[in-house]
Predict the structure of Nitroreductase.
Amino acid sequence: MEFQNLIEARRSVRKYADREVTREQVEEIIRAAQEAPSWKNQQTSKYYCVLSKDKREELRTTCFPSFNEQRCMNAALIVTAYEKNNVGFDDNGQPINELGNGWGCYDLGLQNMLFMLKAKELGLDTLVMGIRDGEKLRAALNIPENEEIGAVLALGYADEEPKRPRRRELSDIAKIF
């Protein structure tokens, strides 16, 4: 798929078909996501991939509000995280600038975008879910305290065709000097 078409074809899907995502697909997608740039090439992003139907159901019903619980039914769940206090900090553990751990989140976002685009290229769809119970996810997946949970990505085969939403005018979002 041509890159611009791929970008425009990616949609936030909120209804998934009852069709399994394979470990091989997830591994291929994560390998593509790893090509994203990161602060000093630290590569602190982490992926906790929940493919088993039983574990997905456990997380879906205990870690999400009802609207996200419904939106990720039948989807694999990919909990994304990054190592805290690593990127954006000097050798003494002091933030380089006002963003501090924001750089870890930024790097994770870059990887997550490549994750979503590669998924689309492979015929899969995604939904970024930020509203979730991070501490319940941490406990259920044994995510260490030194990692900050970012988003959960629902990953699966769409059972709907969302329309492309209108985008703001370039003049509303960009100032070119």
Summary: The chain has a mean pLDDT of 95. The longest helix spans residues 102-121. The domain at 3-159 is CATH 3.40.109.10 (NADH Oxidase).
